[in-house]
Each structure stands twice: as C-alpha cells, then as structure tokens.
Please model this.
Amino acid sequence: MALERAVLIAHRQRIEALRAWPCEMAHESIPAGPDGDPMRSAHSPSGFARTGLCPNAGRATNLACSHTMARYVLRDAIMLLSGDGEEAAVAALHELEQAVSLLDHRRYDAESRWAGARLVKADGTPEQGEIAALVAEHRACVRRAGELRDYVLRRIDVALSRADISSA
Model:
C-alpha cells in the first residue's frame, strides 16, 4: 500500500501544479503592422502572420491551452483512479480536448477573415463578433478544465484517505 500512496501523492502534486487560465487562444491572433494593417507572412497558408505560441512554461501547465501536454497528466491520474466516475471523467476530458482543438482552428479562421476584410478596408465587425464569441467559448472550456482538475484532486484525496485507513 505504501507504493500506491506514493504514486497517488506524486500524481496529486503534478495535478495541483496545473492551472486552467483563459489565454483566449491569443496565439491565433494576427498582429498589426506599423500601418495598422494585418501583418503578412509567406509561411502561413492564410498569408497572415500569427502572434505565436505562449511560452513553454505557460503551455506546460495550462489545461485549457490547445498546445499543452498538461491534459495527459490529468488523463494519467484519471486512469490510475479506477472506480465510479472514471469513464465519465475520461469522456469529459476527451470532450474538452476536442472543444479546445476546434476552437483553436475556428479562432484562426475568423482572425484570417477579419484580416482579409481589414486589408480591403471592409467592415470586419462580423468577424470581430465571431472572435469574441470564440473567446467566450474558450472561457467556458477554461471553467470545465478547472472543474475537471478539481474533481480529479478530490478523487485522489479520497483514494489517499482510503489508503491511510487500510494501512492503519
């Protein structure tokens, strides 16, 4: 039982270090040049530059980031905790991953349409509204990620309590 306790504690510490914060998928935004027009890039399929990914340290701990590995840490802990709720937690994590991934692509598509409208001096208001709606959807994913993190921490605490009782 001591090894199990040590494993649970290690997983708990790793998950406790994770966060869910609203980066709003800012890496998908298109920066403006000195003239205020969207910056171009020959390296991007859309023809527009991207702001770039958040620093590694932030991505490594942000459960709501589309380019994180942090959700694998959460998945490992869920898989360790067998019993009631495991399948639902795995499904919730999968749904979260899919939602964040799709939002990421939708945000860049909307940003690209906005940049195109900006270049031809057209009204980019519809795209700006779409971008704001996508950011709001991402904030909902942030909440879901935080709730899932907290759920897994509670499940680990219960497992640790049971380990303490059985070793007493």
Remarks:
- The mean pLDDT is 92.
- Residues 16 and 150 are 9 Å apart (CA to CA).
- Residues 125-167 form the longest helix (43 residues).
- The radius of gyration is 20 Å.
